[in-house]
């Protein structure tokens, strides 16, 4: 338990994720939860302890939400592989070059180095798998994280670190080329690119490619979204549409959106877009419907709200608990709608199988 406390203290979240007061309150809640866990003699991994402690802590410090009325091989071929449709996936898995499939435990890490894949997990010893790197044709490994599963962390052969979000596929070669590094994504990734001036790094989607040398950025390219986005945390990237008609340079703390024939850039609070890798959703002035769409994807549920509150702007933080009911109950308890008469309207939710409706209490 002491190790868990020290790990929490050493964790490096974005500077805007929590205030100092929030950190102290969260630590107090975790200390209290640890005592409860000891009494019950329940021994679980740190990830579960942290989530359990946050159930109480985030209610008091993290989910104060304010509403305001709405004022060669192409990337398309690789990403749109219908044979591995995400809609059919239930477990996170890694498909190695040569078609060997490995189930990945949630909370596990993947290290790819010198043609060998090492899978680390909480409950088992590390496992190592050889990858075919001798083929004359380019061979690809693919990490598949379906909806309803937590994000997976992967370290590539060049040292780049990748977080792959729910409902996503990430494809990378068994061996990077000598003059460039190329990966492919359908869904969402956050990536910290290892510096290598002689080999630029390309992230390719069905609609665009992002070119970088050494940088940190987020790419969102879900098949069912109307637009694709790049959010730059650090460094410099060049984004080009696949039809080569649009190209722009992106600066840190900015977001590029590609929608049809339009490519736009605006200032962004970057942590709002990468908080998912830390098991959180942080948002500022986002429509309630957009937030519920992200939660739906994370838990592989269909979550909707009444029409008259879809466009209400929300700001706050949500921890992505293991059980979606914890998230929904937290929202229902703490959300208030700002009305002209300053009265608050309590919220509730209804569940019918995998369909959930968030609505005002009658």
UniProtKB/TrEMBL annotation:
The FecR protein domain covers 153-238
Q: Give the keywords, sorted.
A: Membrane, Transmembrane, Transmembrane helix
Cite the Protein FecR C-terminal domain residue spans from the record: 281-335
Keyword check for Membrane, yes or no.
Answer: yes
Record's InterPro entries? FecR, FecR_C, Ferrdict_sens_TM
Query: Which Gene3D superfamilies does this UniProt record tie to the protein?
Result: 2.60.120.1440, 3.55.50.30
Where do the TM regions start and end? 42-67
Gene Ontology molecular functions: sigma factor antagonist activity
Q: What is this protein called?
A: FecR domain-containing protein
């Amino acid at each position: 338990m002491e190790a868990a406390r020290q790990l929490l203290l050493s964790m490096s979240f974005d500077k805007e994720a929590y205030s100092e007061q929030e950190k102290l309150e969260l630590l107090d809640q975790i200390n209290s939860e640890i005592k409860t866990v000891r009494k019950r003699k329940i021994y679980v991994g740190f990830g579960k302890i942290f989530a359990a402690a946050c159930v109480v802590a985030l209610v008091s410090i993290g989910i104060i939400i304010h509403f305001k009325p709405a004022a060669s091989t192409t990337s398309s071929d690789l990403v749109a592989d219908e044979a591995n449709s995400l809609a059919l996936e239930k477990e996170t898995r890694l498909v190695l070059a040569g078609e060997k499939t490995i189930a990945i435990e949630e909370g596990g890490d993947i290290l790819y180095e010198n043609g060998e894949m090492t899978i680390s997990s909480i409950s088992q010893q590390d496992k190592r798998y050889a990858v075919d790197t001798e083929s004359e044709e380019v061979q690809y490994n693919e990490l598949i994280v379906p909806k309803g599963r937590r994000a997976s962390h992967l370290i590539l052969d060049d040292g780049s670190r990748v977080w792959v979000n729910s409902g996503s596929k990430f494809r990378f070669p068994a061996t990077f080329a000598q003059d460039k590094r190329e990966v492919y994504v359908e869904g969402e990734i956050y990536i910290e690119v290892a510096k290598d001036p002689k080999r630029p790094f390309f992230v390719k989607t069905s609609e665009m490619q992002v070119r970088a040398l050494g940088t940190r950025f987020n790419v969102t390219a879900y098949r069912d979204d109307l637009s694709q986005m790049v959010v730059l945390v650090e460094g410099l990237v060049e984004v080009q549409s696949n039809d080569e008609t649009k190209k722009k340079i992106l600066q840190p703390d900015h977001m590029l959106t590609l929608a049809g024939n339009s490519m736009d850039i605006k200032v962004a609070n970057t942590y709002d877009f990468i908080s998912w890798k830390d098991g959180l959703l942080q948002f500022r002035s986002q429509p309630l419907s957009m937030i519920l769409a992200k939660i739906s994807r994370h838990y592989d549920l269909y979550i909707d709200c009444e029409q008259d509150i879809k466009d209400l702007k929300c700001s706050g933080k949500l921890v992505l608990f293991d059980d979606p009911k914890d998230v929904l109950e937290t929202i229902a308890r703490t959300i208030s709608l700002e009305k002209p008469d300053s009265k608050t309207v309590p919220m509730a939710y209804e569940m019918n199988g995998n369909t959930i409706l968030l609505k005002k209490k009658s």
